[in-house]
């Protein structure tokens, strides 16, 4: 405890770090306040929250802004959608590939295109958002309300995007990820209180057991996020003037979960399609009605089996497009590095690809288990709100953002020669002797 208090004092003793933390808190406070400002023309007393299916997922990410019909009702999600689209385009379209290789100027162009695409997506999603609001809550003309809401919601998304960029520039951590995490975490106190009240006094031991299970689930997700497979790399001896420098021994860190949370997001988006398509023929076809009811219930075994298989497929797909063994092999060859016992060039690429394929399988299986664990927890008696924190997209995002933020704080402390957040002075998985696998 004494070491923790000393570390907090060291953090606030660094002027730049203290200002960045206070800036982050201020920007987050603005974001949370905006989540409770209702759209113009709505009677808040008549609002009926729709938190089923996709709407419930959005509301979790937005910290209740969706169900509150607030000016930040779309939050940062249109920007996330635009970023995913641009990321896929830089892989599939040569024009965007060339732009990505242009360095800082290319990055600025991609960012500008992402912002424009965000506005287009936000306007389209605003129409769907307005359609989810029950007509009894609308206190003005419907056409006027739709037009004004589109403008306000799009402006709210742009403002959230600006807040995220400001957190990245003047705060601590990645701004966009921080806003998503804050939206998720804001639901945790209410969820844990509701879970405690639902257990009554006789269920106090059960509630305590749930907290212990939650702790170990979080720790396992941290391990999954930080786990890497190190491939040793040897650099040839170099001659500088009259001196001979021995070759350096480094390593390539291949992450066990290189795809991150993207496979769950993709799979979860597609899992809404069967029930949506089946609803068209639900009244006339018994099979369609069965499919619709089965895939709208995320606790059904059919839903979880398909969901898990899709995560396995998307994990391999996203790993394949995000980690390029050929590029890694070419970078090693140009820098004079080689993997001991493996020929440079194509053989090195095949060797890296084989290792990546093997380590992706256990990572994909565990990612699928983490994704379906909330439904398992709900079937075992955990409330719907609290079960969302036992795994899935929410938990992986929270763990990733917290680890990234801690690493940034750690770097500030080490630069000022203070003891780090951890006893070793380094977060697990970090090292100075690393070949970046890009």
From TrEMBL:
Membrane topology per record: Multi-pass membrane protein
PROSITE patterns: SECY_1
Location in or out of the cell: Cell membrane; Membrane
Keywords: Cell membrane, Membrane, Protein transport, Translocation, Transmembrane, Transmembrane helix, Transport
Membrane-spanning parts: 21-42, 76-96, 116-133, 139-164, 176-197, 203-224, 258-281, 301-319, 364-383, 389-406
Main subcellular location: membrane
A biological process term (GO) from this entry: intracellular protein transmembrane transport
Cellular component per GO, a single term: plasma membrane
Assembly behavior: Component of the Sec protein translocase complex. Heterotrimer consisting of SecY, SecE and SecG subunits. The heterotrimers can form oligomers, although 1 heterotrimer is thought to be able to translocate proteins. Interacts with the ribosome. Interacts with SecDF, and other proteins may be involved. Interacts with SecA.
Family that this chain belongs to: Belongs to the SecY/SEC61-alpha family.
HAMAP family according to UniProt: SecY (MF_01465)
Summary of the function given for this chain in its UniProt record: The central subunit of the protein translocation channel SecYEG. Consists of two halves formed by TMs 1-5 and 6-10. These two domains form a lateral gate at the front which open onto the bilayer between TMs 2 and 7, and are clamped together by SecE at the back. The channel is closed by both a pore ring composed of hydrophobic SecY resides and a short helix (helix 2A) on the extracellular side of the membrane which forms a plug. The plug probably moves laterally to allow the channel to open. The ring and the pore may move independently.
PANTHER family: SECY/SEC61-ALPHA FAMILY MEMBER (PTHR10906)
Protein name, entry field: Protein translocase subunit SecY
Species, as recorded: Pontibacter arcticus
């Amino acid at each position: 405890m004494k070491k923790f208090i000393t570390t907090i004092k060291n953090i606030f003793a660094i002027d730049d770090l203290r200002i960045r933390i206070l800036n982050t808190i201020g920007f987050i406070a603005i974001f949370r306040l905006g989540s409770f400002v209702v759209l113009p023309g709505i009677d808040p007393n008549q609002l009926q929250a729709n938190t089923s299916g996709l709407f419930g997922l959005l509301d979790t990410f937005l910290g209740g802004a969706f169900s509150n019909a607030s000016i930040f009702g779309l939050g940062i999600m249109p920007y996330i959608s635009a970023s995913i689209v641009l990321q896929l385009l830089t892989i599939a379209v040569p024009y965007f590939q060339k732009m990505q290789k242009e360095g800082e100027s290319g990055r600025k162009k991609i960012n500008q295109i992402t912002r424009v695409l965000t506005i287009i997506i936000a306007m389209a999603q605003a129409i769907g958002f307005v359609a989810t609001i029950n007509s009894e809550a609308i206190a003005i003309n419907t056409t006027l309300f739709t037009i004004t809401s589109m403008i306000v919601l799009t402006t709210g998304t742009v403002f959230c995007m600006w807040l995220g960029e400001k957190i990245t520039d003047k705060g601590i951590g990645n701004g966009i990820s921080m806003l998503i995490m804050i939206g998720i975490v804001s639901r945790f106190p209410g969820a844990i209180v509701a879970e405690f009240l639902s257990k009554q006094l006789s269920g106090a031991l059960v509630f305590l057991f749930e907290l212990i299970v939650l702790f170990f689930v979080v720790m396992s997700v941290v391990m999954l996020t930080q786990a890497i497979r190190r491939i040793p790399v040897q650099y040839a001896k170099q001659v500088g003037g009259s001196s001979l420098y021995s070759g350096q021994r480094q390593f390539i860190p291949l992450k066990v979960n290189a795809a991150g949370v993207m496979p769950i997001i993709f799979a979860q988006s597609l899992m809404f399609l069967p029930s949506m398509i089946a609803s068209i023929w639900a009244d006339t076809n018994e099979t369609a009605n069965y499919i619709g009811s089965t895939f709208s219930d995320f606790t059904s075994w059919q839903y979880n089996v398909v969901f898990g298989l899709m995560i396995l497929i998307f994990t391999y797909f996203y790993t394949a497009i995000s980690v390029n063994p050929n590029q890694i092999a070419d970078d090693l060859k140009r820098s004079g590095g080689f993997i001991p016992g493996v020929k440079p060039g194509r053989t090195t690429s095949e060797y890296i690809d084989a290792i990546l394929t093997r380590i992706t399988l256990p990572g994909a299986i565990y990612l699928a288990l983490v994704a379906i664990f909330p439904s398992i927890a709900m079937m075992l008696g955990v409330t719907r709100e609290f079960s969302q924190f036992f795994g899935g997209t929410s938990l992986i995002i929270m763990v990733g953002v917290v680890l990234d933020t801690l690493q940034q704080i750690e770097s500030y402390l080490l630069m000022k020669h203070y003891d780090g957040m951890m006893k070793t002075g380094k977060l697990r998985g970090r090292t100075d002797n690393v070949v970046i696998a890009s």
